[in-house]
Amino acid sequence: MADDTKALPPPAPDGCLGKGCLIVIALAVLLMVALTLGAMWGVHYLRKTYSDTARMELQAPETTAAPTDQPSVAVNQTTEPAPDQLREVQARWEDFERAADRGQKARIQLTAAEINMLLEGDRELRGKARVSIENNVGRVRVSIPLGEMFMMEGRFLNGEASVHASPDGDPAKARITNVVLANQPVADEILDRRVFGWLPIRTLIQQWLEDHDVTSFRIENNAVIGETRGPRE
Asked: Which three-class secondary structure string do you get for the chain?
């Protein structure tokens, strides 16, 4: 009698919905969740550590860091520069930039008041930065609104720092010290880190110096002096 029992076909592989794929998918989901939570924690940490709920007063900057337990009062008084003065300073600055773009030798000297005129005359920078110079040491204060950034509505990046020019005028040797963010001193290394997704401060400064071919930066007689390289041999 012939055996009518047919041999069973071999089991088909589980395919993409098999146990192996399910494990991979589960790991991918867990990884995405971990990355999302990590990013949110990072933003929350930056928000609490390096931002304030009030704008810092920029008028009459301090020459030394004086951190306090509370953010500065939300006052941001600025003095509107006289039109004639502003035009004269802007013309000198534009001449300096044009000479740099053309590879020509150029020199500019600006007092703190003139730098502040340029800042107040710029729509994007107005009310966000202020400079003072005392004993040939620069002091910069910034108060930048962060409302356009994720989870930063109503927050401000308030900071200040001292700028020391190198005795030999080399811009690469200039020192930035006494850094204060959100009313607390931070290590100078913060200038080499990305904060709120921005490029490190030192990187931005270096890019600007290279773009304008600035080879000399000094602070003398309480004024900033910059010089471009000029024609290359």
From this structure: CCCCCCCCCCCCCCHHHCHHHHHHHHHHHHHHHHHHHHHHHHHHHHHHHHCECCCCCCCCCCCCCCCCCCCCCCCCCCCCCCHHHHHHHHHHHHHHHHHHHCCCCCEEEEEHHHHHHHHHCCCCCCCCEEEEEECCEEEEEEEEECCCCCCCCCCEEEEEEEEECCCCCCHHHCEEEEEEECCEECCHHHHHCCCCCCCCHHHHHHHHHHHCCEEEEEEECCEEEEEECCCCC
Q: Is the pTM of this model over 0.90?
A: no
- Rounded to whole angstroms, the Cα distance separating 48 from 40 reads 12
Contacts made by residues 140-147, CB under 8 angstroms, sequence distance 24+: 140/61, 141/56, 141/58, 141/61, 141/62, 142/58, 143/55, 143/56, 143/58, 143/76, 145/55, 146/51, 146/196
User: Percent of the chain beyond pLDDT 70?
Assistant: 63
